[in-house]
UniProtKB/TrEMBL annotation:
It comes from the Eukaryota. This is BTB domain-containing protein. Signal peptide: none annotated. InterPro entries: BTB/POZ_dom (IPR000210), SKP1/BTB/POZ_sf (IPR011333). Pfam families: BTB.
């Protein structure tokens, strides 16, 4: 055994050279290409990049001049990248360290999600792009059933509202359209029109196209829901309870307006947007279980109709026409 480190082992420290460039910890002595993002350089292996990225594979397959005109570092050609250094470092860490430092089963920060989506799309790293899209779609799905599941569970990206704004902007940047209806809905459910236009709040602001879509879509969804539930408001659930299988007709009939008060979507007084959120059997105890289930069935029918209309309300194509990555 010897204490001399392997020539192939990456250097663990990050330091700057005389030119001001910073050498990342991913600096392999036997690397044969240097990637530079911002001021940070990564000495890595062409074979590794080509294995994961179709863009690098095509780049390195081109004939290389015997006397390169491009700058070199330690005899390695330099590939300058317009990406953030942190994004490049994270993706390289996935290539070289995999589950040692990156557990793809764990929660992922927005910054790391954005990195694998941006670089995955740009450099045709298909498995990273697809992983990022899978995570996004789990939180912002295309069906009402999956929406209910996403709201119910702790999903893979932080559901904090500042993150929702970042997600919407990222989806526009990368043309990830399938997640926009659900993302718009979640955003609109938590902010009034006045809040959306509050530029002094310190929050990330939506890009102008997204902001316009949310403002118009929120109002249209509000009106459509009010119209859909008009009969409920006017007739106090007479058309639902007491139902044929009701176990307590007199009590349920007497308590129908009380039950209505426990349905969040019925309260239009403050412009709230609880319209699409799931109604549980425990929403009230004032009526029998059979009647509660009848209400939920009718309520879910309206929710499904509203869900199907979401894309067009927010100025997007129909669900079946939404595409990702300009496909």
């Amino acid at each position: 055994m010897t204490d001399t480190p392997s020539a192939k082992r990456q250097r663990l420290e990050t330091h700057a050279d005389d030119t001001g460039e910073i050498r990342s910890k991913y600096w392999f002595d036997d690397g044969n290409v240097v990637l530079q993002a911002e001021k940070t350089q990564f000495r890595v292996h062409r074979s590794m990049l080509a294995y994961h990225s179709n863009v690098f594979k095509d780049m390195f397959s081109l004939p290389q001049p015997e006397q390169p005109s491009e700058p070199c570092v330690d005899g390695c050609p330099v590939v300058e990248m317009s990406d953030k250094a942190g994004d490049v470092e994270y993706v390289i860490s996935i290539f070289y360290e995999n589950i040692r430092t990156n557990d793809m089963r764990a929660l992922m920060s927005f910054e790391h999600l954005a990195a694998i989506l941006r670089l995955g799309k740009k450099y045709e790293i298909d498995h990273l792009r697809d992983e990022g899209l899978r995570r996004l779609r789990r939180e912002f799905p295309m069906t009402l059933k999956l929406w209910d599941e996403a709201i119910e569970k702790d999903m893979e990206i932080s559901r904090s509202l500042f993150c929702c704004e970042d997600i919407i902007n990222l989806a526009h940047e990368l043309s990830i359209h399938t997640v926009l209806p659900a993302a718009y809905t979640l955003y609109s459910a938590n902010y009034s029109s006045e809040n959306m236009l509050d530029y002094e709040s310190g929050r990330t602001q939506l890009n102008q196209r997204a902001l316009k879509g949310c403002l118009i879509g929120r109002e249209m969804l509000f009106r459509k829901a009010h119209e859909a539930f008009k009969e409920w408001l006017n007739h106090g659930l007479d058309f639902i309870i007491p139902g044929p299988s009701c176990t307590s007709p007199e009590n349920c009939k007497a308590s129908k307006f009380l039950a209505l008060d426990h349905i969040p979507a019925m309260d239009f007084s403050d412009g709230q947007m609880d319209i699409l959120f799931e109604l549980k059997e425990s929403f009230t105890r004032s009526i029998c279980l059979k009647c509660r289930r009848s209400i939920i069935a009718a309520y879910d029918k309206v929710r499904e109709e509203l869900w199907q209309s979401l894309p067009t309300l927010f100025g997007l194509p129909n669900w079946e026409d939404l595409r990702d990555f300009d496909a």
